[in-house]
Amino acid sequence: MNIFRSHDPNAAEVVKIPAGQLFLTRTESVRGGRECLYNDAMATIRRVPSMEHTFQLVITRVYEDGDQELLEDEEETDEERVFLICDALEFRSGKSADNEPAFIWRDVEGDEDELFEFVAAGTNEPTRAFFETCMYRAMYEIKYRASADNVLDSELQQFIWQPPATKKSKKTSQGQASRSTTTAVEETPTEEEEPEPVATSSGSNLHALAAHEDPSMPSIFSGVAELHLWDPEQSTYEKEADVVVRIAQNTARGQYYYQLVALDEHQRPLVAQDVTTDMNARLAARVLSFTWNQQDSNGIGKSWCVRFEEEEPYKEFTAAFARALWEGGNQLPWAKAKFEDQNYVMSSNAEDVEMRDVEDDEDEEDAVAEELDKSDEEEEEEEFEEEEENPLVKSGGRNTQLAVGYKGDRSYVVRGDKIGVFAHMDDHNVRYSGTISKLATPKGKALNPKHAMLHDQDTKMILQSPNDPHALFHLDIETGKIVEEWKVHDDIQVDHIAPDNKFAQMTPEQTVVGISHNALFRIDPRVSGTKLVDSQYKQYAGKNAFSGVTTTESGKLAVASTKGDIRLFDSIGKNAKTALPPLGDPIVGIDVTADGRWLVATTKTYLLLIDTLIGEGRYTGQLGFDRSFPADAKPIPRRLTVRPEHVQYMGGSVSFTPARFNMGSGKEENTIVTSSGQYVIAWDFKRVKKGNLDKYEIKQYEEQVVQDNFKFNDDKQIIVALTNNVHAMNKKQLQRPTRTSLAPSRSSRSGIVNSPY
């Protein structure tokens, strides 16, 4: 029976079940059970416009008369859920608890224990079987890039899911739940060979072209793939052509310069782009694809995708791309990297791998709290009018630094030689309360701080001057005056500082940690003369180019560099216990969880998440701060990125500000927050630890975000400093990234401080 042939080939909808319910089921979590997502819904198999052999399963919410009017008051609606049809869905048919026909599948971007179930109550058997067979034919087309019109039922057997207990081959074992014994496809032995993909007339030409080397640009990879371009209007990748993809050395520019090139069958370059991290590249092993961003000379952004037919060329491509990226960033030959360092770099490109020792279940209390959060009354979004005009509006300049208080319930924003003070209100917003003006050193020299850190129970602020890198300045918060200059050392610069430990700001602790480009040391303002503590100073050989330092609750330290490497120390004055090799990109910020288990390092285009727990060898169970990782068992770094198609909606490029975990005494970290341009971006840390690296949410503001951080001891409130404003944002205001939520800037009313500071 030719399922697709009986329909208009140009029609968007292939088949529809007009009535049903959508449930989310959890099989392993303590949250287990069924959650009804749509009480009234329809299920549709839909072609992707202008993308040949590609289909979507779409579940659309159906509204009764009058319900639609309620949506006008909602900030965002969730009217449909869309799933790319492929065998990774582990699709199967079955029966609901009420013995009604049902379809079950896995969300490939969701948690492992979560399944979707569409209950098609009242649907007759022919319609159910017809819908199921259409799903298998859609899977066939996306896998083999060929029409399913004449495919035999036996050729669809490979897509029929089998329970784990009855697995016979890798080709038929795809899931966790059972399917109905009645299907529209006759079962045949699972050992039957897969059909060969249909070859096109141009395919042989492309393969011949791929095998032909261009002597002017020798390639480290050459293979055939499909080239797709993101259509922001349709919100889909549309196929442009079958191409030869090359990663070629641009020898005219130097030994370590590479380009990604896509050639059509006439050898015309459709894409030619330098291989750099600005590409915002993303690998998706499940569908053998590689997506990235490109900006032309006019600043117009595009999002491209190449998809390979087979796993082997995809793996070869990913290895070549990782090598090109590393060599370009480090300006060294890949062969000079140690074998274990090569494995570390390559492992950073893996996707959706669960972190070591992550619990599958959540605590009962966490689950209850999550449900209570959902039922909390939504906090009103208010806009505050200043009773008197903020004098900083007329002063010019822009906000540059944000310091969020731990004990004083205040946030401070640096703007030139002034610091704005903002009170944290009971209604979870912030209000401008005053200005510390005309900052000047004790010698009367004007000071525009490049960095500000609260200190000594929020009674002091330590300022760094761009004009005097050998000193720090003590600002008395109460008087609003700089009362001391701390000369650190005549010859050693202070490039970055950090508290003695994660929560030192809550205590009377006087010392702070400092780094120069190649040294780590302690600063004590109580000692006479220069303030560097000689007994806690360690200079390291070579040009280390340290760029950031952070401390754990117990005072252990992580130091990052512009080369991209990270060192872990148990104390100051010793060599690092662990040295993690660079991926080739400068690190602009680093943070650590209170217990030292997790690190997040920020580069321009991605965040690097690292588990410091040693999982093998003599020191299994200890952290990399205390012991060295075995040479052949370094941690697996994970890249957190914004998907290229979302980046295109955001203007075509990203530039992250230093990412932070939420922080509180005795509180577990559950969110990572950063920003880029006008967008605040947050990842659910619990889901990231399970391997779901794409689970982020976004909020757009009307201005550039300068810096953001969580309010201390509050994992729901984020303080956001914009170019001229300061906001307090509830985490509930973050949205799933969609074309709507990432649309060009529009007015925001999320607790705006209306006199810009």
Topology, element by element:
Blueprint (H helix, E strand, L loop, with lengths): L12 E14 L6 E15 L7 E7 L5 H4 L9 E5 L7 E4 L5 E6 L7 E6 L5 H20 L56 H11 L7 E13 L4 E14 L8 E6 L5 E6 L7 E3 L4 E7 L5 E7 L3 H20 L8 H9 L16 H12 L25 E4 L5 E6 L2 E7 L5 E7 L14 E5 L4 E6 L2 E9 L4 E7 L8 E4 L12 E4 L3 E5 L8 E8 L6 E6 L5 E5 L4 E4 L8 E3 L8 E4 L5 E5 L4 E5 L26 E3 L3 H6 L10 E2 L9 E6 L2 E6 H5 L6 E5 L4 E6 L6 E6 L3 E5 L27
Antiparallel strand pairs: 1-2, 1-7, 2-3, 3-4, 5-6, 6-7, 8-9, 8-14, 9-10, 10-11, 12-13, 13-14, 15-16, 16-17, 17-18, 19-20, 20-21, 21-22, 23-24, 24-25, 25-26, 27-28, 28-29, 29-30, 31-32, 32-33, 33-34, 35-36, 36-37, 37-38, 39-40, 40-41
Descriptors:
PH-domain like; 34% strand; mainly beta; seven-stranded antiparallel sheet; disordered N terminus; 757 residues; 8 helices
Average pLDDT across residues?
A: 82
Look up the CATH topology of the domain at 13-166: PH-domain like
- Please give the CATH class of the domain at 13-166: Mainly Beta
Major sheet strand order: 4-3-2-1-7-6-5
Biggest sheet features: 7 strands, antiparallel
- Termini separation comes to 68 Å
Helix run count: 8
Q: Tell me the number of strands.
A: 41
Gross morphology is: globular
Which regions are unreliable across 5 or more consecutive residues at pLDDT < 50?
1-8, 66-77, 166-201, 352-390, 746-757
Helical fraction equals: 10-25%
Q: Superfamily at the CATH H level of the domain at 13-166?
A: Proteasomal ubiquitin receptor Rpn13/ADRM1
Just name the CATH architecture of the domain at 13-166: Roll
| Strand portion | 25-35%
